[in-house]
Amino acid sequence: MEQEAASFDDHAFAPMVSLELDVAMFKSRWQFCDGITEYLSDILGQGHSDPARYSNFLSVATNEFIELAFRSTSELGRIRFSLYRNATFNRLRIAFPCEEAFGRKHMDARASEHQTVPGAGSGFVVTKSDGTVLLRDLAAIFRATIRIEQDGEQEIQIIADFPSVEDFR
To answer: Which residues are paired to 151 by β-bridges?
Structure first.
């Protein structure tokens, strides 16, 4: 599982859905987080023997990532939500413009306070300074591989690979 999930090449995954929104519109109402979470989680549940259970369980993690993007993005630009699937994993990718201070804080934290989560990809960072996000618990609970990347100067991507098996404990 670790070797397959650690490869963050989307070409190994079949695209399922992609949603792109203007950030200002997305940030105009907090309720958009819930609506997008429900939509993406329902799609993630498709093809499972108990789709409601699987989507409900993964909606917790999906919601945390979407709320992170909501709080972290600037008012300008586009935010993209994408889902992919292969035989063993479902991938959620959220790409959004970040405020300069957010990107700088995470890059500084990466250099000084980073911890790799067992079973996670090499780029996964958990930071502990105030105002940052702790994703270790989500990775452990969902047996997910989670990675946060800075793409260029002002874009952040959250990439989460969830096992498609349904035996969550």
So the answer is: 155
